[in-house]
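#struct-help
A.M.: can someone run this one for me? Single chain, 230 residues.
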Amino acid sequence: MGLKLESVIPWGRSLKEYSGMFHLTPDDLQRTILDCAGGPASFNIEMTRQGYKVRSCDPVYQFTASEIQQRIQETYQQVIDGVQANLDRYVWQNIQSPEQMGKIRMLAMQQFLEDLPLGIQQQRYITAELPVLPFKANQFDLALCGHFLFTYSDFLSQDFHINSIIELCRVAKEVRIFPLLHLSGEASPMLVPVMEELEAQGYNLGIKQVPYEFQKGGNQMLRVLPKNEE
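D.P.: on it. C-alpha cells below:
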C-alpha cells in the first residue's frame, strides 16, 4: 500500500457515536461486524470489552501506535480550527463546542492507541483498504463504513464508490454507510448515480434516518443488501 502517514488526518469516534450514526440496535451489536475504514476509532475496543465481535480494517493500521499518535498531535489543532471556522455547519446539541468535540474524539483515539498493539496481535485490526478486502464471502453479518465513501467525493471516483460497495456486499450480509454528505456539508453528488447503478445491478438500497446529527443534514445512512436479499 502506498499510503503516506503525512497525508492522513486521523480522527476517531466512539461506540456511542457509531450506535447513533449507524442506528445500531442491541440485536445489531450481537452480529459479527466489520468496521471498514475505521481509522483510530474506539468502536472496536469498546465492543470487544463488552464481548462483541468486531474487526476493523484501514490502511493506517500499517503504522505503529506511536506514529499514529504523533500524526494526531500534528493535525489536531488543524481539525479544531477548521470546525471553529465553520460553526454554522454543525449541530451544537450533544456536543456543545469545538473544544468539547476535540476532547471527546481524543478520548476515543487514546483508547484506540492503547489497544492497537494487542488488537493487531488478535487480528482485530487489519491493514486493508477498499475496493479490495482480504475477507471471505459473507464473513460478516454487518459492514459499517463511516466518513469515507461519499464524504470524499472529490477524491474518490464513481467507479471506486460502486466497486467498494459491491466489495462490502461480498464480505457482509448487510452494509451501512454514513454520512451521505460531502466534506463541505452538501449532499454528495455521487449518491444518486451510485445508487442508480447498484439498483440496476440488482442490489437492494434504502436511505434511512438515524438518531445522530453533528453535520447539519448529516442524519441519514445508506443501507445496502446484496442481491436477492430483503
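A.M.: thanks! The first strand starts at residue 33 and ends at 36.
D.P.: also worth noting: The first helix runs from residue 15 to 21.
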